[in-house]
Every structure is written in C-alpha cells, then in structure tokens.
C-alpha cells in the first residue's frame, strides 16, 4: 500500500466516523481510534494525536453556529473549563507514562461506558428561581431561545458538575477524545441545565479542553502531520455532512447500531490490550 | 440601562467568538489541504509508516523550524502549521473572552478566563 492509497482510505474511514459521530451525537473520536489502531495498525499514540486534532476541528466548527444562536451558556462553559483544562493536562501527562496496552484497556472501558450513557434518557430539565448561592455568584443563570421566546433557567449542584467535568477532562487528555458524553452527563444529569444548553455548551468546551492537552501532545510528538491530515479533513467533512443531513431529527435506530459497533470495538481493544497485541 | 448595555455586549461577544471559530477552522483547513497536496505529490508513492511510535522531528513541532522547512517546499511541516493554527483557534477564543469580560467589567470572569488561558499556555 502506498501513502496515497493509505491516506485515501484513512480519509474515507474518518469521514464515516465523523458522519456517524455527528448523527448519533457520540462524536467521531470514539470510533476513530479503534479504526486507526485495529484496522490500519497505527500506533495508539499517533491515533490519539490525530483524533485530538480532529476533535478540535469539529468542536470549533459546530460551536460557531451554536454560539451565534445564543444556545450555549458561555459563562457556564468558561467556568467549567477550569475543571476540564486542569484535568486534560493531568490526563495528557498520565498518557505519556502509560504503556500502549494500558491505554487500550482504559480506552475500551471508556468506550463501553459512553455507549451505555448514550441510552440514558435525556431529561428536559428546567430549573427556575434564584438558584443556589454559588450559581448566583458565578452568574450561571441564563436564557435560551425556544419557539415561544426566551426561556430563563439556572443550574444546581455546581460542585458536583465541576468534579464530573474534571474527570471528563482527564479522560479527554489521556485518550484524545472529546468526552462529550461525560460533559453532557455533568451538565444535564448533575447540574440540571436544559438538554439543548448542555449539548451545545459541551461542544463549545471540547475545543478548549483539547487545546490544553494539545500542547503536551505536540511536545511529545504524538501529532503526525501525514496521518492527521486525512483524519482531520475526513472527520470535519463527515461532521459537516451530518449537520446538513439532520439538524434536529432523532435517530434511535442508527444510535443502537452505532452503540453496538462501539461496544464490539471496545471489547476488541480491551482484548488486544490484555494480550499486548496492540 | 446597565442591563441593556450588558446584553448587547454579550451578544456582540458571542457573534465575534462564532466568527473567530469559523474562520480559524476554515483557514487551518486550507493550510492543511495545501500541505497535504504537497506531501502526497512528494511522498505519495512511498510506504506508510505509522505502526511504531517514534515521535516527531523539530520541524513538525516547533514554529521556527517548521517555517524554515516550509520555505524548502516541504509538505508535512505545512500541514503541521495548519494543525497549529487549528489548535490556536480555541485559544484565541479564550483571549477574546478576556477582553470581552474586561469591557463588561466582569472581573470574576476575567480571572476565571485568565486562569484557563494560563493552564493552556503553561503546557505549550
């Protein structure tokens, strides 16, 4: 296989990952890393580096639209980025000390968790009233647009959400993924922010979180331009196509298939990790 | 009056941030595509070699060496420059937010944003 053919195949694979990731809301990184390591036999460090770069691209691309529409809660995002960036730096430093096999096992476990989490029912929360003192001090109350006009909301359990975000940051830095599922869990299930606000604010935060670990990845030489090029362009194209095909519609069937695929990939990664064949 | 003024500035800030992210991704993609074409023309018929981790040379990691190699007509350092621009996009967004909160005189969020910026830059 030549570099030309290899890059073409990687581009096609990354495009599918980006498309499925955006249609199901699970993100491209979760399927990209198993694809690169299991199918294309890429070393997991290079795979993580390329995935992180593509995560920044899709997050920034999508966030541009949400920020403009006024759905993202920028103060909430900024405050929680304190937790995710510190976590990401810790995670990325940890990754440089872990063996390939250990990273594969952790990755597989997180993959299974993300697949399960994607089936949790998203409550459409609405917390109104003055909110907790911490939420008031941090000015986390905001509004978001609905068909009936602007809806006021605030959030609860600021400390719990902050801690969960810290975990999300560690995993993002360690595995080169966006950990969108955990970020939404923190805002939606713990802080009780409206679902739409949680998902868009999470998207907005992913790029900043990833930028915090990118510095370490760059220094350690995880980001290979020859590999990252088709990966980034593929995921970005796929995510853009996904956002054009379906902006609002829910795709439960597709989500089930995707979660099953992710589950199988996860088991294969854990298996290979245990047998040191990755 | 104060509340109205704050709302307007929030909205403006959001618009600027949105545009910044959009153009950052667009610009970096263009640089990556250009570098990718050069790379494939120069190395397209070689064998890919990503199965063992070796790290990257300075010209793929450090801006000065990157720039020199780009002027030698190399493709991969140009891709690396595009990736660097991409990584800088969310960081630029943070810098913008610092000024935005300064304008709003929201010093709590000026501090929070500066802290996030420091964590990111400290590791570069």
SSE series of chain B: HHHH
Number of domains of chain A: 1
Helix and strand content put the structural class of chain A at mainly alpha
Tell me the count of domains of chain B: 1
How would you concisely characterize the structure shown here?
The complex is a heterodimer of chains A (278) and B (124). Chain A is mainly alpha-helical. Chain A is built from 11 helices and 2 strands.
Structure, explained:
The complex is a heterodimer of chains A (278) and B (124). Chain A has helices spanning 3-24, 29-39, 44-69, 74-95, 100-117, 133-137, 158-175, 180-190, 195-220, 225-245, 252-274; strands at residues 142-146, 149-153. With 278 residues, chain A is mainly alpha-helical. Chain A has one domain. In chain A, strands 1-2 form a two-stranded antiparallel ribbon. In chain A, strand 1 (142-146) and strand 2 form a beta hairpin. In chain A, helix 2 (29-39) crosses helix 11 (252-274), helix 4 packs parallel to helix 9 and helix 5 runs antiparallel to helix 11 (252-274). Chain A is globular and about 60 Å long. The mean pLDDT of chain A is 88. Chain B has 124 residues and is an all-alpha fold. Chain B has one domain (18-44, 56-122). Chain B contains four helices and no strands. Chain B has helices at residues 2-43, 63-71, 76-103, 107-122. In chain B, helix 1 (2-43) runs antiparallel to helix 3 and helix 2 packs across helix 3 (76-103). Chain B is elongated and about 55 Å long. Chain B starts with a helix and ends with a helix. The chains are: A mainly alpha (278), B mainly alpha (124). Chains A and B meet through helix 1, helix 3, helix 4, helix 9 and helix 10 of A and helix 1, helix 3 and helix 4 of B.
């Amino acid at each position: 296989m030549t570099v030309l053919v290899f890059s073409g195949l990687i581009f096609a694979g990354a495009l599918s990952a980006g498309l499925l990731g955006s249609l199901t809301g699970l993100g491209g990184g979760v399927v990209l890393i198993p694809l690169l390591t299991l199918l294309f036999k890429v070393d997991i460090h290079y795979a993580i580096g390329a995935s992180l770069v593509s995560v920044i691209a899709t997050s920034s691309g999508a966030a541009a639209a949400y920020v403009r529409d006024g759905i993202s809660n920028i103060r909430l995002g900024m405050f929680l980025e304190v937790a995710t960036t510190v976590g990401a730096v810790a995670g990325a430093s940890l990754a440089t000390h872990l063996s390939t096999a250990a990273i594969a096992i952790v990755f597989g476990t997180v993959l299974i968790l993300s697949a399960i989490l994607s089936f949790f029912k998203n409550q459409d929360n609405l917390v109104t009233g003055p909110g907790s003192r911490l939420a008031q001090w941090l000015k986390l109350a905001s509004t978001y647009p609905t068909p009936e006009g602007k809806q006021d909301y605030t959030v609860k359990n600021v400390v719990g959400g902050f801690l969960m975000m810290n975990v999300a940051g560690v995993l993002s830095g360690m595995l080169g993924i966006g950990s969108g599922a955990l970020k939404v869990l923190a805002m939606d299930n713990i802080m009780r922010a409206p679902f739409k606000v949680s998902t868009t604010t999470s998207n907005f935060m992913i790029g900043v979180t990833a930028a915090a670990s990118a510095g370490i990845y760059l220094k350690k030489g995880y980001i290979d331009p020859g590999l990252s090029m088709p990966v980034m362009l593929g995921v970005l194209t796929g995510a853009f196509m996904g956002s054009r095909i379906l902006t609002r519609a829910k795709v439960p069937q597709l989500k089930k298939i995707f979660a099953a695929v992710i589950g199988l990939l996860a088991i294969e990664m854990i298996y290979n990790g245990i047998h040191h064949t990755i | 009056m104060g509340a109205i003024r704050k709302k307007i500035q929030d909205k403006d800030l959001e618009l600027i941030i949105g545009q910044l992210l959009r153009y950052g991704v667009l610009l970096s993609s263009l640089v990556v595509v250009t570098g990718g074409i050069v790379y494939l023309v120069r190395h397209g018929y070689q064998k890919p070699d990503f199965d063992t981790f070796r790290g990257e040379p300075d010209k793929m990691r450090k801006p000065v060496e990157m720039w020199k190699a780009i002027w030698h007509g190399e493709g991969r350092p140009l891709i690396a420059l595009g990736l660097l621009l991409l990584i800088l996009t969310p960081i630029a967004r943070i810098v913008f937010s610092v000024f935005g909160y300064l304008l709003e005189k929201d010093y709590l969020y000026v501090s929070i944003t500066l802290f996030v910026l420091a964590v990111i830059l400290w590791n570069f």
